[in-house]
Amino acid sequence: MAPAAGEPSAAAGGGEGDTEAHAVIDVSSSETDSDPDPGFGGAGKRPRRVVATAGSGREAEKRARILAAAVPPGFLDPLPRPSAPPPPPPPPPRGRRVTRQFWNAGDYDGKPDLLGGDPSLRSAFAELLDNSLDEVANGATYVNIDMLENKKDGTRMVSVEDDGGGMDPDKMWHCMSLGYSAKSKVKDTIGQYGNGFKTSTMRLGADVLVLSRSCGNGGRRRTQSIGMLSYTFLRETRKDDIIVPMIDYEKGQQYWKRMMRTTSIDWQTSLATIIEWSPYSSEAELLQEFSSIKEQGTRIIIYNLWENEQGELELDFDTDVNSYASILYLRVPSVFQMILRGKEIEHHNIIGDMMMKNHVIYKPVMTDGFPRDIDMMTDVTIGFVKDAKHHIPIQGFNVYHKNRLIKPFWRVWALPGIQGRGVIGVLEVNFVEPAHDKQDFERTNSLARLEARLNLMQKKYCIMKMEESLSRELHIERDKNKSLIERLENVQKQLETANKEQEALVDIFTEERARRDQEVENQRTKLKEASSTIQNLLDQLNAARSCRKN
User: Fold this and answer.
1) Predicted confidence (pLDDT) at residue 62 exceeds the cutoff of 70
2) Residue 298 pLDDT
3) For residue 438, what are the CA distances in angstroms to 159, 235, 277, 465, 495?
4) How confident is the model at residue 329 (pLDDT cuts 50, 70, 90)?
5) Residues 427 and 484 in one domain
6) Which candidate, 165, 280, 277, places its Cα nearest to that of 223?
7) Does residue 238 form part of some domain?
8) CA–CA distance, 165 with 528 (Å, rounded to integer)
9) Strand pairing class (142-149; 337-340)
């Protein structure tokens, strides 16, 4: 698969129409941007301005600010330069890694939520699933998530693979570049933020390797590309620029050959960097990873995964991922499978977990009272979770946007005690924009009105169900009272019957006793008469014996 000598060369990537390589992304400070860091950085920190050599402008700065709020603090900061004349210290010895704890790489302070664990971890994982699901339009039939072993050091890695349309070299470069997204212009796609892939992989692990194969539609040749975005590489080599090494191949008549845009030296340098800092030790091992992709698709390998203080992976890929992914989408195409470690993730719609369901149509309106769009409405399903009788402490609304879960079990009515407990709802709102991490919505008037309306819906539902419950209980109590009265009447009748039967038995017993007493008296009389007769006979016998002797 190696190319013949003298083949043309190309850079690791480039924008459409570019003729020179742009594999280096320059990072510099912004002296005017004073927005506080809403994500990983602490209060008072300022995001960094990221300027790609492929182009710049206000849009690039805006995308860069979004990225700066989501990557590990310090990731985009220029490394300190020594102020004294002596040369900088040498890089750390090879094999010594940067910290494996995400929050120790900066000032992140994540907190668990209702589903357990860190919401930013779920957001990162969900972003990768979003990208694969969006590829259904390009023929994707599955996304396969698995755990692999890094053969270099024995650590664990995460693999995410789909059989979507894949990426040609230009798209690959855009994917690995900071702040670029082609999805922002595509209707009904979930992954609409240019930095979703970068921030999600950075949140799961320090380093990522992307392998993608494109079938080359429109008369283009088939291509395959390999790119690496490595936090470990940048920190340990103390690079001033964000270097993203990439290599490309194109399919000849029989074999894959190297695709170069500048010089073979640049291509070899990118390959050597990837081999040194990736889990693979040779070009052949890298190319072997394409064996599972077939005609088209993308394979993402995240390594040097972030760990907690106990040395365990932050995200439980067997439990947290499965349960969250099962409710992540309101609808999943029948042709698409989500596979986790060899087992299909079964799609779960919590509407099926409800009892006593109600359906409410909500149509948002503007402040002037007129609808923004007559077709803009949502069907809210609200009900009690079936296990509410066991006092499961769950309540709130699962709010989706363009089929994607944004706010799981949103508590719009938080009261102490058991009020509202067990009341859940599901709705899809496409008229409220999600935040950049897709774990919340942008704080707008539309969201405030939606929250107020959902609050009112839950209160009305609880009051209505409480009245229905009280009515049912009253009806049940009345039925119980009626049943008790009937039982009492039956017992009284049974008692009267028993009394009569007892009186009859007493009469019978009295008559029987009198008869027996009379019979005893008659027997006694007969006994006396018999005794008297016997005595007379004895007297006569004695008198006869006396006469004989005389």
Assistant:
1) no
2) 97
3) 22, 29, 31, 33, 74
4) very high
5) yes
6) 165
7) yes
8) 129
9) parallel
CATH number reported for the structural domain that contains residue 228 in this entry: 3.30.565
Is the pTM above the cut of 0.90?
no
**CB-based contacts of 340: which residues, under 8 Å, 6+ apart?**
145, 146, 317, 318, 321, 322, 325
Residues 190-198, mean pLDDT to the nearest whole number: 59
- Going by C-alpha positions, the residue among 41, 155, 159, 148 that lies closest to residue 100 is 155
Would you state the structure tokens that stand for residue 1, as one six-digit string?
């698969």
The total number of residues shown for the chain amounts to 550
Under a CB-based contact definition with an 8 Å cutoff, are residues 339 and 142 in contact? yes
Distance CA 256, CA 81 (A): 43
Residue 64 to residue 58: CA distance in whole angstroms: 10
The residue assigned the tokens 């960097």 is 273
Task: Report if residue 237 sits inside a domain.
Answer: yes
Q: Determine, yes or no, domain membership for 54.
A: no
The CA distances from residue 189 to 181, 401, 443, in Å, are 12, 10, 22
Cα distance between residue 265 and residue 256, in whole Å: 19
Residue 206 CA to residue 134 CA, distance in Å, equals 25
Judgement on whether residues 337 and 426 belong to the same structural domain of the protein: no
Q: Per the structure block, which two tokens stand in for 436?
A: 């950049």
DSSP state of 48: P
Cα distances (angstroms) measured from residue 152 to each of 91, 277, 303, 311: 20, 10, 11, 19
Q: Do 336 and 362 share a structural domain? A: no
Structural domain that includes position 254: 119-344
Average pLDDT, the chain: 77
On the question of pLDDT at 12 being above 90, the answer is no
Looking at this protein, which amino acid is placed at residue 200?
S
The span from the CA of 90 to the CA of 369, in Å, is 66
Instruction: Please calculate the CA angle 37-41-47 and round it to the nearest 5 degrees.
Output: 45
Structural domain includes residue 443: yes
CB 420 within 8 A of CB 432: no
Q: Cα–Cα distance between 4 and 246 in angstroms, integer? A: 20
β-sheet with 24-28: strand ranges across: 49-52, 24-28, 242-243
**What value does the mean pLDDT take over residues 458-471?**
85
Number of structural domains found in the chain? 2
Chain position carrying tokens 């320059």:
26
235 and 354 share a domain? no
Q: Residue 83 has what pLDDT? A: 41
Query: What is the three-class DSSP state of 210?
Result: strand
User: How do residues 148-157 score in pLDDT, each as one tens digit?
Assistant: 999 999 999 9
Angle subtended at Cα 304 by Cα 65 and Cα 309, rounded to the nearest 5 degrees: 90
Instruction: Out of 52-56, 86-90, 295-299, 385-389, give the one with best mean pLDDT.
Output: 295-299
Do 483 and 336 have their domain in common? Answer: no
State the chain's maximal CA–CA distance in angstroms.
181
Domain ends where: 318, 344, 370? 344
Q: What is the structure's pLDDT at 70?
A: 41
> Nearest-CA neighbor of 6 among 378, 235, 264, 303?
264
Amino acid in the structure at residue 151: K
